[in-house]
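Anyone up for a design puzzle?
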């Protein structure tokens, strides 16, 4: 129960950090990919904690973990391959720990041969990771607005959406309003410009606000 509890606590902490942390998306992706290793280690310990057959074993749940992460995390293929191979090696490591604990274990070569599906899945996980990484890059490019990168949608109204954006070079955030194309008539442009000017004149405004951006929503 200790191993299961530690695994659940680690998964919860990582999920909370990815959801609420202020780090950029690349850091969160790297953390999510790296987290596969301690989870695989926990599964490997469970697989070899008691006496097991020295000639044949069922397919390890580490294979499912590696493939599942490959289909979810938009990481670089090289990062996914490295993390997958390390995670695949946790089962042989668990067998070695069982050997140190005095349990009967197979020879080194037989151990790696027994867990070869782990390594096959680590290689297979690169394919969905490559697709997700390419899609993620396209999405980030589509969400880029000049010098700003759209981060999170703050609200939506009749004229469009308001997004929290982060400047690529300057250490500051901005609220950017994306107006629907059909609203951007001449009258709407003038009204938006007047509203934007009034907001800029307020002395208590701490963040730049950019209006009049046209985007299909």
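Challenge accepted. My sequence:
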């Amino acid at each position: 129960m200790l191993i299961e509890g530690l695994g659940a606590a680690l998964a919860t902490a990582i999920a909370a950090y990815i959801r609420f942390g202020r780090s950029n998306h690349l850091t969160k992706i790297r953390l999510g990919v790296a987290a596969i290793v301690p989870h695989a280690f926990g599964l490997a310990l469970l697989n070899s904690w008691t006496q097991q057959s020295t000639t044949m074993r069922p397919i390890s749940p580490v294979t499912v973990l590696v493939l599942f992460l490959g289909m979810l995390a938009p990481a670089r293929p090289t990062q996914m391959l490295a993390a997958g191979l390390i995670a695949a090696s946790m089962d042989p490591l668990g067998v070695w720990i069982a050997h140190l604990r005095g349990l009967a274990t197979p020879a080194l070569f037989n151990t790696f041969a027994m867990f070869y599906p782990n390594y096959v899945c680590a290689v297979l996980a690169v394919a969905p990771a490559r697709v997700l990484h390419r899609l993620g890059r396209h999405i980030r490019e589509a969400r880029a607005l000049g010098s700003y990168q759209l981060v999170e949608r703050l609200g939506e109204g009749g004229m469009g959406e308001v997004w929290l954006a982060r400047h690529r070079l300057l250490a500051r955030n901005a609220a950017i309003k994306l107006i629907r194309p059909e609203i951007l008539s001449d009258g709407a442009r003038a009204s938006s410009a007047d509203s934007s000017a009034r907001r800029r004149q307020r002395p208590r405004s701490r963040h730049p606000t950019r209006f009049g951006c046209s985007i299909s929503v």
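A detail worth pointing out: The beta strands are 144-145, 148-156, 160-167, 173-179, 209-214.
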